[in-house]
Specification:
The protein has helices at about 1-10, 15-40. It is mainly alpha-helical. Keywords: Membrane, Transmembrane, Transmembrane helix.
Length: about 70
Amino acid sequence: MGMMWGWHSAFSPMMAPWTWFGWMAGLAVWTGAVVLVTWALTRHPDSRGRHDERPPSTPHEPRRPDDR
């Protein structure tokens, strides 16, 4: 049970500050990796650079009220 005690002591409130910062840094890295992978997998495949599909309206074109 030495390994389990070592594992558990990393979560104890009496742990050393550098251990706590190490856990927080590791948690931040894992969270960032999960967010990055999720963003990469869920973004639209055709969203590279082009954001507007409509052609730009000409300046002399009258603005319709429903064209928001």
